[in-house]
Amino acid sequence: MDVLDAVTASVVFRLSVALGVGALIGLERERSGSAGFFAGSRTFPLVALLGGLLNGFFPELLPVGFAALAVIVGVAYAGKVAFEDDIGSTTAVAALLVFVYGAMATGSENGTVLAVVLGIFTTSVLAAKPWMHSFAEGIDDRELTDILKFLLVAPAVFLLVPNRELDALYGLNPRFVWLMVVLVSGISLGAYLLRKYLGAERGIALSGVLGGMASSTATSVSLSGRARREESLMGLYAFAISLASMAMFPRVLIEVAVVSPSILIDVAVPVGAMTVVGTVLAFVVLRGRDKEAIQIQASNPFRIRTAVVFGVIFAVVLVVSREGARAFGESGVYATAFVSGLADADAIAISLSRLAESGEIPVGTATLGVVIGVVSNTLVKFGIAAVVGGRELGKKVGFVLVTTSAVGIAVAVVV
Question: What is the largest CA-CA distance in the chain?
Answer without folding.
Answer: 80
